[in-house]
TrEMBL record:
Residues 772-781 have a biased composition (Acidic residues). InterPro entries: ARM-like (IPR011989), ARM-type_fold (IPR016024), Armadillo (IPR000225), ARMC8/Vid28 (IPR038739). The lineage of its organism: Eukaryota, Fungi, Dikarya, Ascomycota, Pezizomycotina. GO terms for biological process: proteasome-mediated ubiquitin-dependent protein catabolic process. This is Armadillo-type protein. SUPFAM superfamilies: ARM repeat (SSF48371).
Length: 1033
């Protein structure tokens, strides 16, 4: 390739005498490189990027990077000065180079292009044209990072810079909050939304965007679409006046506003967070357009039709206390017997729609509306107001049904987030299964239809806008549907009836069609021998390797989301049984970083299932290398699949799933390890045929190593799997597992991090022979029962966190004062603080993790002792020897006490004044079953339990537990304690029964026998009472 003969342009850019000459040179360079990849590479090698960045740095405007300006952003375009024209041309050139693909990311980062671009996104200091071009350059960089080679963290670095620095957050807020209707501002808003949806993936970034007011600004944009569609709740201004919200209804969304981009950005910020979902619901503009109030149409319209259906015996789903938006939705029929199907056919679908005359108005006038149909009195009820469903949810259902394409998918995504967060009425589940699931399945059905792909698209580094939108719909729909139907049997059944499983299988198979060209081909050159080696030279002048083709990234994303959909569906037994077995090899290949051609278990060679030293392959596969996201999705699918005993013993074993999962346990990424360890929990069950092969492969050492991990999820999953491993194995293997894990570490796992520090200090002092062990004076323990977690004062973060929209949203002082004192707003703020506390308080999260790990650690000890047999005595003695008899009973007793943490504790000095920690039901049950196994051994072990008077008194306080497992475990424990092995044990058995009777256990058992609501508990209590009376006689 001949060297480009244009050095004079670069020289003129560098040594221009004035702005006019520099602008002319930059325009000439732009004409030279736009749309020409080879020329871009040559100009990069000549160092043009460094010159462009220096121009931006030399003409840097004053920015508000350090704080928030009070001015408003009008966004009106104006004529640019010469220095602004220079910046505009430089930004356009950087955007063009970034549009060249991942190969230009290296030199752009090396010259510091991103910081230089970011200084031009502040709308209060820069003309709208410059802000727009800077945002477009950032979007091009973000698009390039999505196609970069695996392992690069360019997107993460850009997101950290953009979303975690206050100045840039304020700039994005100013853009999104602008009330300008100019086309350039609407395009700016669209680009900001695209940046959020593409880059915002981490929880800390999502929380920062929400706290900075970005989510509220997006909510205001969403409310403007409600106004533009004419779907504001009638009389919203009057209903919102007492709360100061009547001035918060925004203007209609202007032309050029992008609803899909707004919904996608909202979905990216909310994700799976209850706290952020509620922030959207109680945003002032959303509350203004969607006030919660009951509404009834005139008696001769829709309500009459609904009542007629009910009187005819044709039931239908009807929202409780329906609001105005509910009447936009069609009636949802409830599944009827076949005998009634002919009667149902006589009634056409009914719904409430706007009249043709009202469609042109900014707000609807519902026919039959009168002021007294709104129950204003209900707004004074705090309980009803807190429990009322926001009209935003039925509106999102209506929006999903009335839009198409990407707007429909994103509306369903936001709706799914709110539904999964628990802010929808329980009866909405039926409506979603009838109104939303079929629409998403129809999008899937359209996507799996055979369509001829343009051969040029398969090898092109760029795709047109229509193709990009079509691919986005195909990629996102399975993921949205998977989130919606997860953990919901009715929705899973609805998706199954719409053949979602079959379509997901087809999509997964399509992603394994060989793609032999995965990276963008090098441009043709007439003189290839004269090409410059791109690996030589300075990093600022060296073009990087080409990235993946867009169609390659599209297939990988489809693979990930189809696996997620299958994982959400196969939990349902009926769906799992309907799954075609020929799809399993494709699932198994998704567990390999470099997959091969999917083959059934019979076609695979046995030699490939042997385990050797794990070395992750780095070669490219024609079927597409699986990134970590695909590996994690495949692990979740296998975990859901392995919940079936039949599939665990047949399908997974026949297809050799064990060894790929074991290899992923040693993957360098912690999230992959976590997902793989979740599958191992099911594969190590005593009836799993893969258990022996995993033990031979060295699973014990790996799990014991992860039990010492700093990651609480890995500790939990490893203890869960070890709990299964020690069940129904030889005592020698049990002792080996305990030795590998370490008895001291096991004690640390089942003790609280702070509450039981005194117990660990006592154990250390006893080993040193020091009988004087200091207790933790900062903690009191009390007897008592219950289940829960109670805090008595303000939160760790509530003192410092402020609900931004309540105070930041501009409005007249009169309405601001009303809003600050409004009971409705105060309730919303109080609930937000509670949700934030529950979701983000690190102490509470650590406490939850500790409790889950403690439960599995106690269950590990229970299974370590084993089932009642001749070897049980040996293992009980071994546990006493390794842990310490007194230490074990002290730990068990500590799990049954109420703990009160005082404020002068060093760790909690900055937190609440007093924290009361009640024992948890699952931990109590695990403690009791440890005692059950001890009592199932020889008589001397039963006598040892009887001698623990304080422990027994604590147990007696849990007979009134609401948890059925705790009550059942107590009955089993008492049955074992008064069990008589033979005639020689009769006297001791009578003494044990007498001691239990003195402690009041017989009376408590008789109460359970007579008054417990569960038949199983009554029968267990009856057997224990008989055993105790027999032993006492």
């Amino acid at each position: 390739m001949a060297r480009i003969q244009s050095p004079p342009i670069l020289s003129q850019i560098r040594v221009a005498r004035n702005y006019s000459e520099q602008v002319a040179s930059l325009r000439a360079l732009k004409d030279e490189v736009v749309g020409h990849a080879q020329r871009k590479e040559k100009w990069v090698q000549q160092g043009v990027l460094e010159s462009l960045v220096k121009i931006l740095q030399g003409n840097r405007p004053p920015s508000s990077l350090g704080g928030k300006e009070s001015r408003s952003y009008t966004g009106h375009p104006r004529n640019l000065t010469e220095d602004e024209l220079v910046r505009l041309q430089s930004l356009q050139l950087l955007a063009s180079f970034a549009n060249g693909g991942p190969s230009f990311l290296g030199p752009l980062h090396a010259v510091g292009a991103i910081p230089a671009i970011l200084y031009n996104i502040f709308p209060l200091e820069n003309p709208p044209q410059i802000v727009l071009t800077a945002l477009r350059a950032l979007c091009n960089i973000a698009d390039a990072t999505s196609l970069a080679a695996p392992g690069s963290d360019d997107a993460g670095a850009l997101a950290e810079t953009l979303f975690l620095l206050p100045g840039y957050l304020n700039a994005m807020y100013d853009i999104l909050a602008s009330d300008s209707t100019a086309a350039v501002v609407q395009e700016q808003k669209c680009l900001v939304c695209q940046l959020i949806s593409r880059l915002c993936k981490e929880t800390n970034q999502q929380n920062t965007l929400a706290d900075a007011g970005i989510l509220d600004a997006l909510a205001t944009m969403l409310a403007s679409f409600v106004v533009a569609r004419g779907e504001v709740v009638p009389r919203a201004e009057i209903l919102g006046e007492p709360d100061g919200l009547n001035e918060m209804i925004p203007d209609p969304a202007p032309r050029g506003a992008n609803l899909a981009a707004v919904l996608e950005a909202i979905s990216a910020i909310i994700a799976d967070s209850c706290f952020r979902a509620y922030q959207l619901i109680c945003s002032p503009t959303i509350m203004a357009v969607f006030p919660s109030a009951e509404f009834s149409p005139s008696a001769n319209q829709t309500s009459t039709a609904w009542n007629a259906l009910e009187m005819s015996g044709l039931s239908s789903h009807r929202a409780k206390n329906p609001g105005a938006i509910d009447y936009l939705l069609p009636i949802v029929p409830i599944k009827q017997p076949r005998s009634l199907s002919s009667q149902l056919a006589q009634f056409p679908p009914l719904g409430f729609s706007l009249s043709r005359e009202n469609l042109s108005q900014s707000t609807p006038t519902f026919s039959g509306w009168t002021p007294n149909r709104f129950d204003a009195g209900s707004r004074n009820s705090e309980t009803e107001a807190e429990e009322a469903e926001s009209p935003l949810i039925p509106w999102l259902i209506h929006l999903t049904r009335t839009t198409e394409g990407l707007e429909r998918v994103m509306a369903a995504s936001v709706l799914t987030s709110l539904f999964k967060a628990g802010f929808a009425n329980p009866d909405r589940e039926i409506a979603l299964g009838v109104l939303i699931v079929p629409l998403l399945c129809q999008l899937l059905r359209d996507s799996v239809k055979e369509k001829e792909v343009n051969p040029a698209t398969q090898t092109s580094a760029f795709v047109d806008q229509d193709t990009a939108v079509e691919w986005a719909i195909v990629e996102r729909t399975p993921g949205v549907l998977a989130r919606l139907v997860a953990d919901s049997q009715p929705l899973q059944q609805a998706a199954h009836d719409c053949r979602a499983m079959r379509m997901a299988c087809t999509m997964l198979k399509n992603t394994y069609e060989p793609l032999y060209t995965q990276t963008a081909p090098r441009p043709w050159s007439p003189n290839p021998d004269r090409d410059v080696d791109l690996s030589e030279g300075l990093s600022t002048c060296r073009v990087g390797p080409p990235g993946k083709l867009p169609i390659y990234a599209h297939k990988i994303k489809m693979r990930e989301n189809s696996l997620k959909l299958l994982a959400a569906m196969v939990i349902n037994d009926e769906c799992r049984k309907a799954l075609d077995q020929d799809i399993v090899p494709y699932m198994v290949e998704s567990l390999f970083p470099v997959p091969a051609k999917p083959k059934s278990g019979k076609e695979k060679l046995k030699a490939t299932d042997k385990v050797s030293e794990v070395i992750l392959p780095i070669d490219n596969s024609p079927y597409g290398n699986n990134p970590n996201s695909v590996l994690i999705a495949a692990c979740h699918l296998m975990r859901a699949f392995s919940r079936s005993v039949r599939d665990l013993r047949t399908t997974l074993e026949d297809n050799g799933v064990a060894m790929p999962i074991f290899r992923l346990l040693k993957h360098p990424d912690t999230e992959v390890q976590l997902a793989a360890s979740g599958v191992v929990c099911n594969m190590t069950l005593d009836f799993s045929p893969m258990r022996e092969s995993l033990i031979e492969a060295g699973i014990i050492k790996v799990l014991c190593e992860y039990a010492h991990s700093l990651n609480p999820g890995l500790r939990l999953n490893s203890m869960w799997a070890l709990k299964h491993l020690v069940l129904s194995v030889e005592n020698s293997l049990k002792k080996h597992i305990l030795e590998e894990l370490g008895s001291g570490w096991l004690v640390r796992l089942i003790c609280d991090e702070t509450e039981d520090e005194a117990l660990r200090a006592r154990a250390r002092s006893e080993r040193r022979g020091d009988p004087n062990a200091d207790d933790d004076e900062d903690m009191d323990t009390e007897g008592g029962g219950g289940g829960g977690y109670q805090d008595d004062t303000t939160s760790w973060s509530s003192k410092y966190w402020m609900w931004t929209p309540k105070y930041r949203t501009p409005c007249p002082p009169k309405f601001a004062a009303l809003r600050a004192q409004s009971p409705r707003m105060l309730r919303a703020e109080k609930r937000l603080q509670a949700l934030r506390e529950a979701e983000l308080n690190p102490t509470r999260k650590a406490r939850t993790d500790d409790l889950a790990i403690q439960e599995q650690g106690l269950c590990f000890i229970r299974n370590l002792m084993g089932q009642p047999s001749a070897s049980l005595m040996e293992m009980v003695d071994h546990v006493f020897e390794e842990i310490g008899q007194d230490i074990l009973f002290d730990i068990l007793a500590s799990k049954l006490r109420v703990k009160v943490l005082h404020p002068f504790t060093r760790r909690y000095s900055a937190g609440r004044d007093t924290r009361v920690l009640y024992p948890q039901a699952k931990v109590i049950e695990a403690v009791i079953y440890v005692l059950v196994h001890i009592a199932a051994s020889v008589p001397r072990h039963r006598q040892l339990v009887i001698s623990q008077i304080d422990l027994l008194k604590l147990l007696a306080q849990h007979f009134n537990s609401k948890d059925i497992g705790v009550r059942g475990a107590l009955c089993q424990l008492l049955t074992n304690l008064v069990w008589q092995d033979d005639s020689s044990d009769a006297t001791a058995c009578g003494q044990r029964a007498h001691e239990l009777r003195k402690l009041g256990f017989l009376a408590k058992l008789e109460t359970l026998e007579q008054a417990d609501s569960e038949l199983d508990i009554r029968e267990r209590a009856k057997a224990a009472v008989w055993q105790m009376k027999t032993g006492n006689s």
